[in-house]
Specification:
two-stranded antiparallel sheet; homodimer; 2 domains; DNA-binding; Dna Ligase, domain 1; 134 residues; Arc Repressor Mutant, subunit A; 5 helices
Chain lengths: 134, 134
DNA sequence: ATCATTGCAAACACTTTGCATACGC
DNA sequence: GCGTATGCAAAGTGTTTGCAATGAT
């Protein structure tokens, strides 16, 4: 908990209990959680928590670079604590999302067609290992 | 118009006027249009058109492989007539979306970590040529 | 006459906004 | 005490659903 507090402060974000818990959740659950998943998971620990706070906090984190908003479908936004760039594979059968290390397959330059690339996301779709074997 | 009719029939889709016009729009406007853009553009030509029909038709096209649903943000879905795979660059300043040929930079195998990859999308973000020069 | 397509209106689901309350230095 | 963070409720936005009207063969 203490390391999260220092991390937030180092980014100029005042470390409220809600923010600490949301950051901790993102760090401990690298499962591309939705707002609702985070909210539901933390509610027992923070009974007064509101979804607005989860939304506020996540957009603050994204803005400050602590988290990344993933674009995997147009239904619900998903969030990752910011780590090295990686792809996301969504199984079209079971809907599970897997992290994929795409660095062996992708080498995006800093500039393409005169546009400056700041970051990118790769969304892969198909049938996952588990579904294929059933 | 005749070529669209034949194309739909070859896919087993009955070529209603609405479907023909939506397909034509996708073919002539390769600008990743949203449902609303398609609807608004066609309304003068089909005054009775409803958004439901645009939604219905697009999901039929996606299902039959005639179009692709893009996921560029978590706000609105965008659609492309199905062509060779390419990336999409969104300018974070002006919001414009550019097609990017990523084939030189990306080589995704058919299988990764045991998962079967059917298709993928690459969403790039940054500052576009135009915005950089202003 | 039958079946598919269309289109209105209502329902839905996720997200944002407005504003009053509570918290922390 | 004052500025920020929180959280409820309401509004907003994109999408889907139910169902009746229309159209095509």
């Amino acid at each position: 908990m203490e390391q999260y507090k220092e991390y937030l402060q180092s980014k100029g974000i005042s470390p409220s209990y809600q923010r600490l818990k949301i950051l901790e959740y993102l760090d401990l659950h690298r499962t591309h959680p939705t707002v609702d998943e985070i909210y539901t998971a933390l509610l027992p620990h923070i009974p007064t928590l509101s979804k607005t706070t989860v939304y506020n906090t996540l957009s603050l984190f994204v803005q400050e670079g602590l988290a990344t908003m993933l674009v995997l479908d147009n239904v619900e936004a998903r969030f990752d604590i910011t780590v090295h760039p990686h792809g996301h594979f969504t199984c079209t059968q079971c809907g599970k999302v897997y992290d994929i290390d795409v660095t062996p397959f992708v080498h995006i330059p800093n500039t393409i067609d005169g546009h400056t690339i700041q970051y990118y996301q790769i969304a892969l779709k198909g049938i996952c290992k588990d579904c294929a074997s059933h």
